[in-house]
Amino acid sequence: MGAGEVPPTGTCDLTTVGRRSGQRRRVEIWYLTVDGETVITGTPGARNWLANLRACPRAVLHLRSPDRDVEVAAAEVIEQAKRRRITAEAFRLQPWYAEQPYSVEDWVAGAPMVVLTSVPPRAPKGS
Question: What is the mean pLDDT of residues 113-125?
């Protein structure tokens, strides 16, 4: 899932496992490629998809260009310098983000932010 394989930003879907229900939950979201990593972020505030990833970091990223599904593991971005770098790239790559009523500091302090890394598909149950 490196930068050469997908555009630097785009719309995708992300399927997580509900932290309480255990059911699959699919949400449409933008991704960014920052420093060769695939990142999911959004405006500051709580998000169910982030809470689900905290409880179960395995998910499926449904890319549209190229059209494919990728099993991923999510790692929340905690380190402030990395959050700042991702925010700067989000504002550059997706101008919509910069148009929202939040400062860079708001994003660094409170935006949901995870790096997705591809992982081998899970073996089917019973195999």
Answer: 86
